[in-house]
């Protein structure tokens, strides 16, 4: 047969594997044009309009519940908060995402408390279902907080705090109790408490009130609560 210089199987085999569109290095970086941590730094409990009249949105439509069983809004926030995208939210990832209305990050202690409260499977981290519970919990307390922030300072003064605690716990706490509770959490020199402290304080009071039933042994109620709050 005549020699055909264009045919060389060896050459073609060598050339085939090269595909300029395939580059493992490039593809290892998960590219998601919609995810930009810098842009999405708006914390999830912070809703742009500071409006106490605003009611919490209702549950998602049944079709969406059937689709994923997790509120899509919650699922998209989970993706933002889970910075390293390993499917689990750590205390520090939670702290980066939770911002008080005055711009401060949540106290680490509050974030740790939230993880402890909602880590149902005791994995030490928060999965998407556990996160849904935290999301709803924080949103609920933020609505209460905003309702009682009469001065719109985005913090609660001792008087606002007293009104809130009395309503939430169906009590008539003494001014001394409110003052000491506020001092425990307020950032000096101001005596006002932010959303993170408000959430912590309410959880501590609820837990102490629960303990009082079995451990109170006739002790003055407020003293027992204060003792628990101060030691927490
Ligand atoms: Ca993570
Ligand atoms: Ca967990």
Automatic annotation (TrEMBL):
Pfam family, one: EF-hand_7
Protein name per its UniProtKB record: EF-hand domain-containing protein
Ranges of biased composition (kind: Low complexity): 1-44
Subcellular location: Cytoplasm
Pro residues composition bias: residue spans: 45-63
InterPro entries: EF-hand-dom_pair, EF_Hand_1_Ca_BS, EF_hand_dom, Peflin/Sorcin_CaBP
Alphabetic keyword roster: Calcium, Cytoplasm, Metal-binding, Repeat
SMART domains, per the entry: EFh
GO terms for MF: calcium ion binding; calcium-dependent protein binding
Record keyword Metal-binding present: yes
Disordered: region residues: 1-68
Domain EF-hand: 69-104, 106-141
Lineage: superkingdom: Eukaryota
GO cellular component: cytoplasm
């Amino acid at each position: 047969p005549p020699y055909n210089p264009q045919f060389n199987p060896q050459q073609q085999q060598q050339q085939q594997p090269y595909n300029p569109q395939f580059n493992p290095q490039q593809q290892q970086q998960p590219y998601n044009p919609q995810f930009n941590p810098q842009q999405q730094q708006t914390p999830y409990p912070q809703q742009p309009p500071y409006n106490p009249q605003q009611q919490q949105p209702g549950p998602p439509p049944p079709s969406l519940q059937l689709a994923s069983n997790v509120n899509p809004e919650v699922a998209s926030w989970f993706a933002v908060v889970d910075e390293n995208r390993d499917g689990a939210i750590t205390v520090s990832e939670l702290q980066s995402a939770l911002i008080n209305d005055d711009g401060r990050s949540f106290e680490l202690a509050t974030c740790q408390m939230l993880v402890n409260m909602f880590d149902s499977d005791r994995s030490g981290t928060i999965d998407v279902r556990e996160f849904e519970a935290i999301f709803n919990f924080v949103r609920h307390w933020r609505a209460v907080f905003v309702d009682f922030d009469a001065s719109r300072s985005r913090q609660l003064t001792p008087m606002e705090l007293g009104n809130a605690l009395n309503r939430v716990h169906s009590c008539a706490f003494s001014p001394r109790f409110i003052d000491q509770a506020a001092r425990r959490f307020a950032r000096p020199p101001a005596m006002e408490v932010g959303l993170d402290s408000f959430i912590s304080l309410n959880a501590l009071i609820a837990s102490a009130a629960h303990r009082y039933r079995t451990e109170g042994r006739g002790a003055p109620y407020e003293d027992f609560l204060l003792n628990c709050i101060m030691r927490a």
